Amino acid sequence: MDFILQGFVQAIRLLTGGDPETYSAVFATVKVSSMAMAVSLFTGIPLGFCLGHFTFPGKRQVRLVVDTLLSLPTVFIGLMVYAFLSRQGPLGQMGLLFTLPGIAIGQTLLALPVVIALTATAVESMDADLRPSLLSLGANRRQLLTGSLWEARHGILAAAVTAYGRVMTEVGVSMMVGGNIKWHTRTITTAIALETSKGMFAMGIALGLVLLLIAFGANAAVSFLRRN
Amino acid sequence: MALFQLDHVVHTYAGRTVLNIDQWRVPAGQILGLCGPNGSGKSTLLKLLGFVERPVAGTIQFQGRSCEPFADAVRGKVVLLPQTSFLLRRSVYSNVAYGLRIGHVKCDTAQRVRHALGLVGLDPEAFAQRPWFALSGGEARRVALAARLVLRPRALLLDEPTASVDTASAQMIQAAALYAHRQWGTSLIIASHDHQWLQDTCEDTVQLFRGKILGNGRKTLIFGPWRRRDDGIVQTTLAEDRQFLAVDPPAHLETAVAAIDARHLDLQTSPEPPPPGKTILEGTIVALGLEKSTDRISVSLAVGGIVFTTHLPRHALTTGRYTPGSTAWIVYAPDQVEWY
User: Measured between CB atoms, which of B75, B86, B102 is closest to A129?
Assistant: First the structure.
């Protein structure tokens, strides 16, 4: 038990003392997850809205594929992105393997089905009276879309938080595509895995606490936005 | 020019025809009530008139122009208050101002919102900043109505405006709708099961049944089972020893529904023999109401489970013989029964 307790004490020291190695992993994680979330929200929200709002041939099949992609294993995504970005792969000349943008590509693929599926569910579960109400108040087609999107904002926020949680906590993509390079592509989760294997619990616990803190911050922000 | 004109309008849900109107015209400036049993097509008709749905077939003209949903000619001019009080997830003020904002209406928005809230009996100071979830059912209904009234529409369509609201809220909704009619010349079309409220508010009523318009005025619907007698007359039993008689039944007698117009029902307070060609039914007066538009008294008389409605001149009440709970007789001619 003592080594766990000491780990916590040491973790607080690392964080308050501004340990550069710890903060390098934190910044890499925030940077890469922000890139992945920006792309997945920008493309996933419109796609999810279309999937939930419109009726088109093959909609059920598309929904089935998206729902299946929700349970994509991160190591499989890591493997596929690695294959595409490696020197022999079709995107090898871009030089993205073992870089933060490379990890961001993999994390985008991880977050996109979550954003699409949960946005579609939020839009589908909107009140059936929303459309007639907006129309009867004089909305045109564009206003009907933006009004519906705004009404689904709480569900979309929940989709974003869920996707963010998935991106922040994954190890497979970061490890395989990023290579866990110190000062460069080492993220919080890959650092925890490495430090634990080395028996360095303090840094692992410190990084775990940072992850929890970021998750708390994201949820607090969503809670604030919901209330307003 | 008619406010609305419908030609060969058909609407279906999941392949089932719910509305089938050959031709119908609504004059401008009227307060028109729609009545009919559940599933008769009242809400569907209002959705089509409100241009929130497009009919499967046929055309709907508004002020002489054939229109469809999203048409500029109807946006903000024809507004529908749906059956449920759906409010946007924002404050009362934002809900009421929404139509003005998206319609880019040039006006003092704050003043218009305050006025609309006042019309429906809500204190703007107390309610404007309340969120949508902090309202009672009656308050939400009135906010939804205020969001329509703020647009000062040419036509206001109300679907069950008093459903699940208390008497005070129903009176405020009535007063606000009548204000719009009086001040801005807004035509009102109101669907309701609250016959008394409808009678107090409307100048005329139209009855719907099975997706068809039966015509203007109050009709009593009589459902079977029908039995064909040897003399060709068909009858259904309303109560013990009291049969409703009709002639010329349709071929589909099992599913046929008879209707008799209030104008074809006479009321008497003694069981005098009816004139030749007419028949008499004993019942109990269950309600009396004043029809403000015609200044007549509407009398509801229950015979078994069926309530017949007829009218009396106002002075007839001075005799004191027409009181709720007293026995009365209706006289009608079986050949004036219509079939559907």
Answer: B86
Of A127, A140, A153, the CB nearest to B86: A127
Tell me: the pLDDT tens digits for A133-154? 999 999 999 999 899 989 898 8
Q: Which residues of A touch B80 (CB under 8 A)?
A: 132, 136
The model's pTM: 0.77
DSSP conformation class of B248: S
Best probe of the B interface among A137, A150, A156, A157, by most B CBs < 10 A, is A137
Burial of A39 (0-12, 13-18, 19+ CB in 10 A): middle
ipTM over 0.90: no
**Looking at this protein, which amino acid is placed at residue B170?**
A
First to last CA, chain B: 31
Question: A59-69 and A20-53 are packed helices; what angle lies between their axes, rounded to 10 degrees?
Answer: 160
- Tell whether B47 lies on the interface with A, counting CB pairs under 8 A: yes
- Name the residue with tokens 């409808």: B198
Q: Give the CA distances from residue A75 to residues A81, A89, A107, in Å, rounded to whole numbers and listed in that order.
A: 10, 18, 11
Residue that the structure tokens 């390079």 belong to: A181
Q: Report how far residue A95's alpha carbon sits from residue A80's, in angstroms, rounded to the nearest whole number.
A: 16
Q: Mean pLDDT by 10-residue block, N- to C-terminus, for chain A (228 residues)?
A: 76 82 90 95 94 91 94 92 92 91 96 95 87 91 90 90 91 92 91 87 83 86 76
* DSSP annotation of A182: T
Concatenated DSSP letters of B149-201: HTT--SEEEEESTTTT--HHHHHHHHHHHHHHHHHH--EEEEE-S-HHHHHHH
Please tell me what DSSP assigns to residue B11: E
| Contact in structure between B16 and B210 (CB atoms under 8 Å) | no
Kindly determine whether residue A137 and residue B147, on different chains, have CB atoms separated by under 8 Å: yes
Task: Give the integer Cα–Cα distance in Å for A102 and A81.
Answer: 8
* pLDDT tens digits, B20-64: 999 999 999 999 999 888 888 999 999 999 999 999 999 999 998
The type of residue at B1 is: M
Given A132, A141, A154, which is nearest B70 (Cβ)? A141
Q: With a CB-CB cutoff of 8 Å, which residues 71-110 of chain B face chain A?
A: 75-76, 78-82, 84, 86, 88-89, 98-99, 102-103
Q: What is the pLDDT of residues B121-160, one digit of tens each?
A: 999 999 999 998 899 888 999 999 999 999 999 999 999 9
Residue B328, strand partner residues: B283
d(CA B189, CA B99): 20
Q: How many residues does chain A have?
A: 228
Contact B316, B254 (CB under 8 A): no
